[in-house]
Specification:
By secondary structure, this protein is of the alpha+beta class. Among the domains are: about 70 residues, Antifreeze-like/N-acetylneuraminic acid synthase C-terminal domain (Type Iii Antifreeze Protein Isoform Hplc 12, Alpha-Beta Complex), CATH 3.90.1210.10; about 120 residues, no CATH class. The protein contains 3 helices and 10 strands. The longest helix has about 35 residues. The chain starts with a helix and ends with a strand.
């Protein structure tokens, strides 16, 4: 009797344990599901301009608190979308990295609305020794002859985005690459300036800081300004030492002028041989 009761207690404990484990597992799974979300990530490294297909994507569980803004959970909604920038393996595919719906693949997919792509011929010097890579910003210098046949160099365009060098548009490279052509992203007005500048003079690229947005207020420089020597200004004449102030000389008081005495009346008197003068 005691053995049967003990066996029943053991069986009840086992069943209760199994039920507790099942409910605990279900609770943990539900809690984990509430703390994570489905995120579509790249299954391999993707270059800009690529058109997405199912083989390029996979769905992973991502912690809800650390998921970046704009993540997508349905891979079917990303089919035939074009990538605007390089995406590494395991990186979430977000809307900000995709071209608008309906955009075809290629370099045209990465050009912003209202912008154009223009390619200019460069050499090792003009191309900043190969350090002007896709994603960098450059200023453009033009060297021309003015109306008086004097050379002048001037920055004509500032903060121009490099879209591609040669036929490569990947932005994850840092190694310099000497190429023969650079493709730049410009507005229609900037495209006109750049086309005119390269037809009348020689171009040079100036690599600038990625976060520097301050305009360069320069007037350009001419040949005579570059070779002009500094003139030595003549030394100003030394000022003569100030003369000591003279002490005023005390002047004597003027004596009042005396009126001339009236001349006396004279009468000559003759007495015989004697002559005399009498005054009145």
């Amino acid at each position: 009797m005691k053995t049967t009761r003990a066996l029943l207690m053991i069986a009840f404990s086992v069943v209760a344990g199994v039920v507790a484990v099942f409910f605990a597992a279900s609770w943990l799974a539900q809690k984990n599901a509430m703390m994570t979300q489905k995120v579509v990530v790249a299954s391999r490294d993707l270059e800009l301009g690529n058109t997405l297909d199912p083989s390029m994507m996979q769905v992973l569980s991502w912690p809800s608190g650390s998921a970046p803004a704009g993540v997508i959970d349905d891979p079917k909604s990303l089919e035939a979308r074009v990538i605007r920038t390089t995406i590494l393996r395991g990186e979430p595919i977000i809307e900000a990295k995709l071209a608008p719906v309906g955009t075809t693949g290629g370099l045209s997919a990465v050009i912003d609305s209202g912008k154009r792509a223009l390619t200019v011929k460069v050499n090792e010097v003009i191309g900043v020794a190969g350090f002007a890579l896709p994603g960098n910003y450059v200023d453009i210098l033009v060297n021309i002859q003015d109306e008086r046949d004097n050379s002048i160099s001037k920055i004509v365009l500032e903060r121009i985005l490099v879209l591609a060098v040669a036929q490569e548009a990947a932005r994850d490279e840092t190694k310099p690459k000497v190429v023969s052509a650079v493709t730049l992203e410009v507005t229609p007005e900037e495209a006109e300036k750049l086309d005119l500048a390269r037809s009348i003079g020689s171009l040079s690229l100036v690599l600038r800081n990625q976060v520097d947005k301050d305009p360069a207020a320069t007037a350009g420089i001419r040949k005579e300004d570059l070779l002009k020597t500094a003139t030595i200004a003549p030394e100003p004449p030394k000022a003569a030492p100030a003369a000591a102030p003279k002490k005023p000389v005390a002047s004597k008081p003027r004596q009042p002028a005396r009126a001339p005495a009236p001349s006396p009346d004279k009468v000559e008197v003759i007495r015989g041989l004697q002559r005399s003068t009498a005054e009145f």
